[in-house]
Design brief:
about 375 residues; alpha+beta; Phosphatase 2c, domain 1; six-stranded antiparallel β-sheet; five-stranded antiparallel β-sheet; 9 helices; 15 strands; about 30% helix; about 25% strand; globular
């Protein structure tokens, strides 16, 4: 095929839902896009759970986006000098990424609660289910309570020259559209995501629930990846979603189309929240803007595309959603807490306490297995 020359664009935004705004609740969605690493673009979104026991889910969502971005960019760097061997990439992915994402999220959650222990009000929500032994080890039950407090979904896509890599746990929509073909859902549906129930990074078996797919950039490969949380997805009928994806693809193709979409995205999300469930709404896009005959401009660098042709890479930065600014930083005001901080928390094994220490070299299957225990979160009004 002929070389595709152009620029990948990464944009996204989160807005607080109309019901959250009315009730004085924070935005529990988070969105981040990254396009400053030559040859690698990432869009990641997360939807923190809305129920009472997930009282720090807005922080958990931010952590999830940060972790996914770091892990995917690290993966891209590790592949920078490799051949375009999709099988080998897939093999590496199955053995590392789902586990690394899940365990790194747990580590960051433990670090956050150590810096910012549960307040007295928060402890009333967990009661005696958050026991910590005198030696600072957390019981398996305490780990489950801690993770659930920060519970969130996660959707993320990495785009490079030779491939795209998608990760998802929980509900939300991840669709793609090829240059001349139709739109399709990138990942198979998880049967545990139904109604208001969703799988979560807070699940004990999150590394097994993280679905992934590697898409080689060959033939008529996607030029648009669309990610959105259920607060935006549910503003449309399911049958209409592929058509909406194609409309976005065509709108991006218009002259300065990505700028128009970026400028109007926030208002569109607010309208969708109002006509839908009233939930927080988030959307992010990775789009390949073809450049017919021009050369890379200032601030761009050339890398090899899927077929060996150069691609102009736009310089940008890691962007947290403006609507998420209220929970970008750790809390600075809190009541004093008599409970000791969580020193360590990793997946429970047996009945004894557990300590932090991740074996990131272990091989983990990416296939879905039956849940262990309480592995489905009631999302409610996320």
């Amino acid at each position: 095929m002929s070389a595709r020359r152009g620029t990948w664009r990464a944009i996204g935004e989160s807005v607080i839902g109309v019901t959250h705004e009315r009730d004085g609740r924070p935005c529990q969605d988070y969105c981040g896009v990254h396009s400053s690493t030559p040859g690698a673009f990432v869009a990641a979104i997360a939807d923190g759970h809305g129920q009472a026991k997930s009282f720090r889910s807005q922080v958990g969502a931010r952590i999830a986006v940060e972790v996914a971005t770091e892990v995917l960019l690290g993966f891209a760097r590790s592949e920078a000098g490799a051949s375009d061997d999709a099988f080998r990439v897939r093999k590496d992915l199955a053995g590392h990424l789902p586990r690394v994402v899940a365990q790194t999220w747990r580590e960051r959650v433990s670090e956050h609660v150590e810096r910012d222990p549960f307040t007295l009000d928060e402890l009333t929500l967990v009661g005696d289910r958050y026991p910590i032994a005198p030696d600072q080890r957390m019981s398996p039950e305490a780990c489950r309570v801690l993770w659930r407090a920060y519970g969130t979904t996660l959707l993320a896509v990495l785009v490079t020259g030779p491939y795209a890599l998608a990760l998802q746990i929980g509900d939300g929509l991840l669709m793609a559209a090829a240059a001349s073909g139709g739109a399709f859902e990138v990942l198979d549906t998880d049967s545990l995501n139904f109604g208001t129930s969703t799988t979560s990074l807070s699940d004990e078996d999150a590394e097994l629930r993280l679905r992934w797919r590697l898409i080689p950039h060959e033939g008529d490969y996607p030029i648009l990846y669309w990610l959105c949380t259920d607060g935006y997805e549910k503003a449309f009928r399911s049958a209409d979603l592929p058509g909406v994806c194609l409309e976005y693809r065509d709108a991006f193709r218009e002259r300065d189309g990505w700028r128009v979409i970026q400028e109007n995205l926030g208002e569109g999300l607010r309208q969708a929240s109002a006509r839908g469930t009233g939930d927080d709404a988030t959307a992010a896009f990775l789009f390949f803007e073809e450049d017919h005959g021009s050369t890379p401009g200032d601030g761009a660098s050339a890398v090899e595309g899927a077929d060996g042709g150069p691609i102009a890479i736009e310089s940008a930065g890691l962007t947290g959603s403006p609507a998420s600014s209220s929970h970008d930083a750790d809390r600075t005001t809190k009541e004093s807490c008599t409970a000791p901080p969580a020193r360590a928390c990793s997946p429970a094994s047996g009945d004894g306490g557990v300590t932090l220490g991740t074996d990131r070299d272990g091989v983990v299957s990416s296939e879905i297995s039956e849940p262990r225990g309480d592995s489905v979160s009631e999302g409610g009004d996320q």
